[in-house]
Give the backbone structure.
Amino acid sequence: MKAKLLIALFLSLLVTGAFALSYDQTHSRENIGQAIPDLGFTGYVIEDFSVNKIETIKLALEITHSRTSDLLITLTSPLGDYVVLHNMTVTNSDTLMIIASGGNLLSDFIGQSAIGRWEIQVYDQIRGVVGIINKVHLTVNGGDIDRSVDRPFPTLTGIQCGEKWNEILAEVQYDSFYKGLIGNCGGQLMNKIKSLIKNHKSMSYDSARRIMFSKIDNHGGRVCSVYSDRCLSTKGLPPNRIMNCEHSWPQSKGAVGVAQSDLHHLFPSGSKENSTRSSHPFCEIELSDTATKSVIGKRNGRVCYEPKDGHKGDLARAMFYFALRYDKKVNTFQEQFFRKWNREDRVSFKEVDRNNIIENYQGNRNPFIDHPELVDLISDF
């Protein structure tokens, strides 16, 4: 099976003060099909821009290649400056995403003219296989990264969707409840999933908290925080100053009404960690150690919160569920990490048990726990 190399490099640098961005210009092409020869070179040229001064720049590049570790990929500006986008990195998954922003990698292009010849250069440095450039999207002066019109995740064509389902069904069985999802991708799949999880049995927030602490996350009279290794003994609601209920999707961002008490995104959390996380977005911060505890920090200048390793996959699947159940959008900044965590932190028996218990109370399940592979069939949450 061919591996997909998705390189999505973004930079959003704004000068300080009340400064209005110049109009944006975009070069966007999909299904390009430009060959990358074995042990050879190909250049993809862009000469579309008339912007005299670059203030922000964003690039999304999708490449299909069965051995991405063979490739060296660069981007060269009209002035001849270049950056290395990918340098023979070994990858083991279908999709590799490299995200850079806030002055990282593409910062040398800020202030330059965009007029002239841009070139994406792909070098295959080891004999063996060929590849294809599938998609290129380059925008200058397009505004904030999270408002990008182009999502840095691959969209499956009809043929690719069918091929992906063939691979899935060769390894995974779908029972009658989920059989209606088979063969669907993207928006159609999202709508099918929504129909399975909507109209669940709602309850008061007080009831939801009591059920969470006494039944769902209570194991032998002990409840543990998802953000640290702290546990306490309790049979019901613990004191708020010690442990309380974490809304993975913050109440200030839309977890209100029925969503406030949806158990699929509620987890026990130490009061201090809950307060620290606040409503900050999730990410992988720079220079962090999250083996046993969560950490607040920055990613490319942005304050964000990294959960401990053992909760990352659970959190990602809870957020994907919430987005579909309540028609919310997951911004690009967080989505890149949720996808990564869904792959790396696999569904555990504990997570499956939790899904089963919640179904008993709410009457619906989180499909991304039962079938985490569905995430890769959706290009934009």
About this structure: Helices lie at 158-169, 186-197, 205-216, 271-277, 309-325, 332-344, 349-362, 367-370. The chain has two domains: 4-154, 164-377. Residues 13 and 56 are 5 Å apart (CA to CA). The longest strand covers residues 56-65.
